[in-house]
Every structure is written in structure tokens, then in C-alpha cells.
Amino acid sequence: MEEISLELEKREVTGKAVKHLRAEGQVPAVIHDHGKPSLIVAGPYVAMLKAYQRAGRHHPVQLKAGGKQFTALIKTAEFSPKKHELRHVVFNAVKANEKVTASVPVRVKLDEGNDSTPAERASLVVLNQIDEVEIEAVPSKLPEVLEFDGEKLVEVGDQVTVADLVVPDGVVVKTDPAHPLATVFEPAALQAANDAVGGDDEATSEAAAEGEAEGAGDAAKGSEGAGGSADAEPAKG
Q1: Which residues touch 77 (CB under 8 Å, ≥6 apart)?
Q2: What is the structure's pLDDT at 211?
Q3: Whole-model pTM?
Q4: How far is CA 122 from CA 10, 83, 117, 196, 205, in A?
Q5: At what angle do helices 187-197 and 201-212 cross, to 10 degrees?
Q6: 164 is in which domain, residue-wise?
């Protein structure tokens, strides 16, 4: 597993005053540490953004801050709505020998030489229904991604679920195994659903899934974010 490291500085500035930190190219952050007092810190914008892009919410980050070292997961990252600039990060410190929960991306795996599923090669539509799942593992066992076999998606109605993911030893998937990952649809059915809901793409997907993915049942919703040993919400600034 690639090591991601980040050096942060303790900060005294909080609240609205952090706008000056941001103007100086710093991102305010908080480190929650197993119920101990949270460490209020900040780090260079470019380094913080790169760490987030590489780690997401599933890869441990090695932190140096306040004369201490932490292994942590990113719990939340706040971005500005207009410019999509990183504004605030919350880290959860974790212990090397204790299991943690994290949200890990899922992706399709295809046979060598193929760049799409059999269904897509037959001009059908494959609708991806979730992008990540919640898992549990010790930090050193957290995978970068979990994959499913896209060659199973051949005809209209074919579906892969969380249970079809290839899961390495030491990892437990917490998301409902019946939750669909991807389903094959007839293009005309998607267009009909689109017409019925007024052309909104997201609503189209939902309507199509409700109308044709009958095998999915009332699957549970996917997980909502990584959990560490502390679940306190981020202190603004």
C-alpha cells in the first residue's frame, strides 16, 4: 500500500478568522484522536488537496502535527460550492491493530482486451447504481478499490450486486450484499422513463431502476462515509 504522509501545524485561529489562513494558502483541519481533545491544525493547500485526492476516505494518511505522529483516515472534506476549493478537513486517528470502517470505491473488471461489458457491446445500457461500499478492516488491509466481474452483464435484466464483489482476506463488506451495483437496461426503456419524468437524468435512472430492476427488492442503502474511532462532527474552522 502506498504511504501518504502530511505535515500539519497547530493553529490558534478558529471561527471566521480562518478566512485569513485560507487567503495565505492554508487549509484548516481537525484531528480527532480516540476521545482525547481534538487537535486543531492547518496545512498547505496543495499538499492537503493532493493527500485527499490520493487517500479519499479509505486510505490511511500518516500525519505529523504538534510533535506527534498519527495514522488517520479522512472522515470529511469540505469544498466551496462555486470554486470547488478545499476548505476544511476532518481526520480520524486510527490504531494499527484495530478495525476501522471506510468507504471504498467499486469498479468493473473486464477480460483482457475488452473495454466495455458484453451488454454495452450489444448497444444496451449498463446503469451503475452505487460508486462505493462500506467495509471494515485494520488500516493496513484497507483496499484501494473493490472490483466486480463486468463480463456477467450480458442481457437486459442482468445485474451484479455487492455480493459479487471480489473481497480480499481480512476485509468485511458492511453494505447490504443484495444492493445492486450495476444493471442492464434496454435503451428504449430508459428513454421512456426519461420522458415520463421530464428529462432529468437522475430521475431517469431512478425511474428505470424502479421499473425494471425487479430482482433488487428493497435493498438497503449504501453506507454514508468513513467511520473512525471518534464520530464527532467537524468544528467549523
Answers
A1: 52, 86, 88, 89, 90
A2: 46
A3: 0.70
A4: 57, 40, 9, 25, 20
A5: 120
A6: 101-216
* Same domain (yes/no): 192, 146: yes
Mean pLDDT score across all residues of the chain:
85
Total domains, the chain: 2
Domain boundary residue among 94, 129, 149? 94
**How far apart are alpha carbons 20 and 6 in whole angstroms?**
21
User: Does residue 78 sit in the same domain as residue 113?
Assistant: no
For cell 467511520, what's the residue?
227
Nearest to 153 by CA among 112, 182, 196: 182
Question: Of the candidates 46, 63, 94, which is a domain's last residue?
Answer: 94
pLDDT band at 225 (very low <50, low <70, confident <90, very high): very low
Q: What's the pLDDT score for residue 57?
A: 87
